[in-house]
Design brief:
- The protein has two helices and four strands.
- By secondary structure, it is of the alpha+beta class.
- It is about 30% helix and about 20% strand.
- About 15% of the residues are buried.
- Strands 1-2 form a two-stranded antiparallel ribbon.
- It has one domain (about 10-80).
- The radius of gyration is 12 Å and the shape is globular.
Length: about 80
């Protein structure tokens, strides 16, 4: 499994998001470049660049940077045998 870590600064996060064809609107919410639709985290909530904790490889699952979101992500991943 590939794990990529990156700096927590907004400039680096924006660069990583651009690789996935995402950007950030004026409110700081991560959005699709083509449609301007909000990107949702693993729990179906909008996610801001400030709260971005990671992107799961191969699936574009966005995870917030708090312990509850990270635990939820790994629990769902284990239940489903990976994503």
């Amino acid at each position: 499994m590939l794990n990529i870590t990156f700096s927590n600064d907004p400039k680096t996060k924006k660069f990583i998001l651009s690789i996935f064809n995402k950007t950030v609107n004026d409110e700081g919410t991560i959005i699709e470049k083509d449609t301007n639709r909000s990107v949702l985290d693993i729990n179906g909530q909008e996610i801001t660049i400030e709260r971005l904790g990671g992107v799961s490889n191969g699936s574009e699952i966005y995870v917030k940077d708090d312990i509850v979101s990270l635990v939820d992500f790994y629990r769902k991943k284990d239940r489903n045998g990976g994503f």
